[in-house]
Amino acid sequence: MAGWASRVGLYVFLLTSLTFATARSAQYEPIDLGSLAGDITPVEWADKHPESTARGINDLGQVVGSSIVSWTGLDPATDSPIEHAFVWTPQAGMVDLGTLIGGPAATGGTSMASAINGLGQVVGWSETALGGVHGIIVTPEDSDGDGAPDLWFRDDDLDGVNDLMVDLGTLGGADSRAFYVNDLGQVVGESTTVLGEMHGFLWAAAQGMSDLGVLGGLVEFSSSASHVSDSGQVVGQSTTDMGEIHAYQRTAEGAMEDLGTLGGLLESWSDARAVNEGGQVVGTSLSDGGQEHAFLWSTNDGMVDLGTLGLLPGSSSSASDINAVGQVVGTSTTDTSESHAFLWTPSGGMIDLGTLGGASSEATSVNDLGQVVGSSKTAAGEDRAFVWTAEDGLRDLGTLGGSTSSATSVNGVGQVAGAGTTLQGFTHAAVFAITAASNADMSVSVVSAPATAQVGGIVEYRFRVENGGPDTANGVAFSFSFPSAILRRTSIGFQAGNGFSCSGNACSGGIMQSGDFNTFTLEFAVEAAGTAVVAADVTADTEDPDVGNNSSSATTEISVPTTADIALTKQAVFDRFDPTPDELNIEEQ
């Protein structure tokens, strides 16, 4: 528990240290969310099944996903790991949401969590006692009365079943799954009907589960709902009367509308993945050329082909998410047949987000700040979670100590949910949290002593490097220059504390706490007349809020000494010859 306490404490610190300044100033800290099974895993399963993974995160930093909680046995040939849905909060850590069956973990079935809304409501699905799976919603309670939900599991009758987990039921069949929940508590997903068909559904606490129906069908009649906006607009895919599968949107008024396709000739197909509050829908459709292309649909423009990164025939793309301002993210092939993450904007079109040095990348989510997250191959071929911003481009979010990571979603304040491998090789759910950026106001000053000098003299220059805070400055580097035609340095070396390594006219590698300063003096011999300007600069790896004081100089006016030849002569001038002693005023002795 001590390990968990330290992880939770660290995350609470990170959460309260969020910065909303600029994406450039953001620093990310990978947080290991652990697993419901702890850190002990049968060796046979270590490389085959992740211990936990995160699928969603809300603006409060609450994360949902699934985690291995137990195993039916230790033989991978006959037994399987058992996974449970979880919610993770900075205060409580990872909470097992249980299942609809209850009982011991090894016999209580499995459950999954797929999404969480701003109120902390969690949706997903769970095995039932009859062997099927049903959609679920868990609505948290405020146990301490502070106005914030903090309790996701309650078992008053001690039967092992979470009293806060609600079975969404089905449309008459055996199975249902919930994929998304909006901030009004409306849930969408898919369920089997009495006839065994799969239909999309919309669930609300007051109305229960409603069948969204289908656009039509010949032999197969099916639909699925993937997303719902806060206005109640549902999107997904459905069969049509022509036997094709088309993207659809269903308004709050209840009419399912066929969004069409991008004109696939041999086969017509499209699928809607997300919708924003402006009613814009994104997804993927077959194009005239038979390739999959990302699309953007709106009431005014209909379905618009977003194109591809590659200009050659055969290039493809797919869209995964859209934010409030109509920015779309997804994946597209390039002219080199690589798959790259893209960002599409109304003004700039499709932008290649590149990779972390490897051959491929994919974008999974974008928030209203324009921060894009996903996964990319590195030059070493490892998968890494990334965040992309217009200021910084693609940035590696790191791992939990292992070699790989992934990102599935980003919330409104830039926190990223995903997974990463640990030093032991386990895959754990992770949050890549934004911490407040470190700032250190570095400054340097130079003073000449004396301010004027003469050729042949000595002049000293006194330097002062200081960290004005508020944070520690790492990688501090200091350098100076002087006119070698006028001055000759007589101080061969100099010392500077705070970890500096000094050589020649520069020092580097300094670590200076807020308020630290270094002063040192160098002596120069004056060899020529003129104006001597000695300049100094300081930089640091830590962001500097004021670079105007990172440079300084001192000017010394040097002149040639003035010289004078002094001679004393005596001369007497007479008006006539042979003056008398009185006239000379000479006193005889």
Characterization of this structure:
With 589 residues, the protein is mostly beta strands. Helix content is 3%, strand content 48%. It has a six-stranded mixed sheet with strand order 34-42-41-36-39-38, with no helix packed on it.
Subunit arrangement of the protein: single chain
What gross morphology would you assign?
elongated
Instruction: Give me the count of strands.
Output: 42
The low-confidence runs, each spanning 5 or more residues with pLDDT under 50, are: 1-25, 573-577
Strand order of the largest sheet: 34-42-41-36-39-38
Q: Which structural class do you get from the secondary structure elements?
A: mainly beta
Largest sheet, in brief, is: 6 strands, mixed
Please state the CA-atom Rg, rounded to the nearest Å: 37 Å
Mean pLDDT across all residues, rounded?
A: 87
Helix content: under 10%
Q: End-to-end span in angstroms? A: 118 Å
The DSSP helix count reads 2
Percentage of β-strand residues = over 45%
What characteristics describe this protein?
589 residues, elongated, mainly beta, 6-stranded mixed β-sheet, 48% strand, 4-stranded antiparallel β-sheet
TL;DR?
The protein is mainly β. 3% of the residues lie in helices and 48% in strands.
Secondary structure blueprint with pairings:
Blueprint: H1 2-16, E1 27-32, E2 52-57, E3 63-71, E4 81-89, E5 93-96, E6 111-116, E7 122-127, E8 133-138, E9 165-167, E10 172-181, E11 187-193, E12 198-204, E13 208-211, E14 223-228, E15 234-239, E16 245-250, E17 256-260, E18 270-275, E19 281-286, E20 292-298, E21 302-305, E22 317-322, E23 328-333, E24 339-345, E25 349-352, E26 357-366, E27 372-378, E28 383-389, E29 393-396, E30 401-410, E31 416-422, E32 427-435, E33 440-449, E34 452-454, E35 458-470, E36 473-481, E37 487-489, E38 501-503, E39 506-512, E40 517-526, E41 530-539, E42 551-559, H2 581-584
Parallel strand pairs: 34-42
Antiparallel strand pairs: 1-32, 2-3, 3-4, 4-5, 6-7, 7-8, 8-9, 10-11, 11-12, 12-13, 14-15, 15-16, 16-17, 18-19, 19-20, 20-21, 22-23, 23-24, 24-25, 26-27, 27-28, 28-29, 30-31, 31-32, 33-35, 35-40, 36-39, 36-41, 37-40, 38-39, 41-42
